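ok so for the tutorial part 2 we go from a plain amino acid sequence to predicted structure tokens. step 1 is just haveing the sequence, like this:
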Amino acid sequence: MSDFLLVHGSCHGAWCWRDVIPALTAQGHSAHAINLPGQGADKTPVQDITLELYAQAILNALDGPTVVVGHSMAGYPISLAAERAPDRISRLIYLCAYVPTDGLSLAQRRRQAPYQPLLPAIEKTADGLAFTVRPELAQQVFYHDCPSDTVAYAKARLGPQAIRPQETPVSLGANYASVPRSYIRCTQDRTVPPEFQRSMTADWPSPDVTEMPTSHSPFFAAPDDLARRLSVIARATP
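step 2 — the prediction. this is what the tokens look like for a chain of 238 residues:
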């Protein structure tokens, strides 16, 4: 069985994996989630948050070779963590996540998408250091196929997202390339365009890519199916 570390995306926290952790446990795995700096219950000041700090938080949460799952924005920090310590990560799984390009920031990578469905839903904080999601648009962009009580649970917990880590170019090399990776595309995604998810993984081996017919939040829309898919991927990892 495998150990999983679950890493959330922008404006979310460890709370978004509420339904997936018990589902993975039922499959015989161990799983836990973290709050990246400044997210969820973590109170790191926004001015101190960096991409390196994100990667270090991931590495601090690893206790031996682990399957690391990154949702959305987390594709960048999980990749940097793999570059820093490839021996501690048995596989990276990108869940409708941004796959980094060496030398580009997440913001630059995001602008390569054919359209930007998230932009109308976000606004900068007064200090210009973070952005938030407009509550009235959160369901539309993140949770359109999720149960209503779950949508309420999530909207009450969304928080500001530090901008600096997303504007920082990432440097990746042989260490990152040595770590096995898989991708789960979400075909009804209204945040990361499904077309972009396909283009980011167009040259990946087909066994390393699978699709779910869900929104940007499969951890709420179909947690049992997501856990099953994660388990299948992990079991195929040496």
